[in-house]
Amino acid sequence: MKFLNKLIPSSRCLVLVTLLSTACNEILEENPYTTFTKDYFKTSGGFRSAVVTGYAGMRFNYGPIGALDLNVFGTDEWTNGDQAISSPLNVYNVSTSEGDLLTPWNNNFWHINTLNLIINLKPEELVDVREADRVVWVAEARYLRAQYYYLLVTQFGAVPLDLGSGELQFNDLPTSAFNRLPVDDLLVKNYQAMIDDLTFAVENLPAKRPERAFNLSKSAALHLLAKVYLYRGYSAASQSTDFQNAYNTAIQLINGKDTYGAALLENFADVFREGNDYNAEILYAVERLPKNNTANEMLDPSTDFANKANMTNNMFNSNYQGPIFVFDPSTTPPSTQAYIDGRPLEYGRPLRRFAPTQWLFETAFADKKNDSRFDNSFRMVWYARSVSATPPATYVDRLQVIGLNIGDTAFYLTKTDREADSLKALTGAQKKNYRVFGPSEFYTNANRTNLIYPSLTKFQSIQRANFQDASGRPLPVSRFAETYLLAAEAAMLLGQSGEAADLINVLKRRAAYRPGLTPEEVESRYAAIEVTADDIDIDFILDERTRELAGEHSRWPDLAARGKLLDRVPTRNPDAANIQPHHVLRPIPQSQLDRISDPDKAKYQNPVY
């Protein structure tokens, strides 16, 4: 694979990411090196730089448009907004030249190669590295290698462990080989390599992460290990003990939460509250810093949607600039004004790439009263705001023509058409000055020219230097609430549906909580959504994952790994009705196949593509 020899260049500059420590955070800063050798990595500075480069490389997988497309589109939860009509990954018209495929493919392998180098360095080869540091750094590197492989295997199936110098060995020479055969045997090795790496990480990482940094810890490793066991149990590489091991590993984290520094927050809204990014429910997140585009490796944050940009704050927003009102009917045509002036920081850029499906809104979140997670995940109300700190006088004056002021409700999305009809029917003093949209208006516009829909708020990012910028917030990868879901699913698969219900009800009880409710009111709402063993099956588990994890960049592999893409997607996402059996794996990119010296390239490709 010719793209794999990126670690030690002879003629071009390689950017490594080195670590600067501050009182509260570890800040990633780029430092260029023109040339270097393996000896550099035998030093404390070089070894640590390679580890932190592994951390920084995760930014390619969490936040940019390609990574989001691969994990969000083509699912039961999300379809395309009007800025991504007929996206190939959503309508399942995927070719081997699809650019989004290259986001993990072109980036993950060379990070794996770098990690292979330092993982395999023997203690006696190192110059000034303390043994205690080496063990922890290798544990971090092995977690990261497992995560990179997890991200590849869950999309493409089996992928090479041998990058040209042997399995899990560093390679610094160009190769035209593509060591993917036999595929079934390789998939077994892929999963075992991930499990071995994560087991080492569990044994050797610190018990807890720092309070103000997302250094890896045992909690993140236990969580991912439980998930990998579960995924292997569903795969062609399954072993009879996988579901039991998944359960045991998740329960170890749940029962040892105090030891590992993990906790469920009382209020679901606080999990994603900006400024509370380092809370104990987030086990691991890809680090970014507010208003620090340099540290976030964003050279042009207003135009770069790919590379390492965290675009989650912008991609799930509906067209809030679309609704307008008439402030002067005497002109021809009548003079109009948008309810929102520009793009206020709190609303993000209305890039309208991902829109929730009707199934997500109406079925998964059918009970929006007793379960607080919909209200704490989606925006349904927009207020009259301006992008300017001092709103233009013309905007203020035009609002007042229709009885609105800055800060008033500008438009409101109702949860039922009945509520929308009632509000629209009001007259006289009761008439609402704001615009009202009912659910039937979210989904009936076939041309998608004015899509107004509930907009995900989990990744809202106000702390940005410019209203066009990408987010500077850390992006969660693993969350303690999901650990409960993994344990519940494993319990169900082991025939312990009562145990599964108990684990899910921990999340249900939290979902019933809203600030201001009395204990009796919380208990009443919990009783309305509590589940029993009879409710538990794989589809219920997947529905509950939607309620808890909607938008958290894992839905496509979640469905694919469980063999549920073909069952659930066509009935819940009409735009994705073209899905075929071979779409449960992504195609190996054509650019990779073109580099293989073997003329029989088809045998390396996934079926049908």
Automatic annotation (TrEMBL):
GO terms for cellular component: cell outer membrane. This is RagB/SusD family nutrient uptake outer membrane protein. Residues 95-230 form the SusD-like N-terminal domain. It comes from Dawidia soli. Belongs to the SusD family. The keyword Membrane applies. It is found in: Cell outer membrane. Keywords: Cell outer membrane, Membrane, Signal. Pfam families: SusD-like_3, SusD_RagB. SUPFAM superfamilies: TPR-like. It comes from the Bacteria. Residues 364-559 form the RagB/SusD domain. Residues 589-609 are annotated as: Disordered.
